[in-house]
Structure formats: structure tokens, C-alpha cells
Amino acid sequence: MEDQPHFKEAILEEGGELDSDLIEAETVSCARELKDQHPNMGAIVLECSMLPPYARAVQEATGLPVFDFVTMINYFYEGTHRQTYHGYY
After folding, report:
1. Contact predicate 64/41, CB 8 Å
2. Do residues 30 and 4 touch, judged by C-beta distance below 8 A?
């Protein structure tokens, strides 16, 4: 992502105004390229804390599971705050 023009300017250099649609397009483009380069890849991890808003678009574009710090927080929260099961097997 550091080579993507708008991501670099708006996020890394903290300059100008962030265009969310443009960041999404750059993120999806990078994800598609990554999938093309690694066709056996099973999932994508978005390491940058600015990218979770674009996880759904990445998932829709690649068909892969997408993880980020939000999914990690939810995973740990669910593991430590279990709900009573109501239903049948």
C-alpha cells in the first residue's frame, strides 16, 4: 500500500484530504494483485489500522476471508465473554 499514491499521501504522509472511495479502490487493487500473485492464498490480513473499513470490499473482490485488528478484538472478546447457548444441535 505504501506505493499507492493516495494512500501514501493521505495516510503515510498525513497530507491532504482522505478520499475513502479512492483508498478503497487502491486497497482492492492491491488485494486482487496479491491474489493473482499467490493463487493458493487462503486469507488476507489487513495489518494497517486504517484498512478495516475496506475489509468487506476486499473480501467481495477476492472471495477470501479477511482479517484485521477488529476481527482479532472480536475473537478475543467472544472467547472471554461467552453467552449461554440457547438452541439445539
Report:
1. yes
2. yes
Cell of residue 20, nine digits: 475513502
pTM exceeds 0.85 for this model: yes
The Cα–Cα gap between 43 and 56 comes to 13
DSSP category for residue 81: S
Identity of residue 87: G
pLDDT in tens, 40-84: 999 999 999 999 999 999 999 999 999 999 999 999 999 999 989
Q: Which residues touch 45 (CB under 8 Å, ≥6 apart)?
A: 66, 67, 68
**Which H, E and C letters describe 18-67, residue by residue?**
CCHHHHHHHHHHHHHHHHHHCCCCCCEECCCCCCHHHHHHHHHHHCCCEE
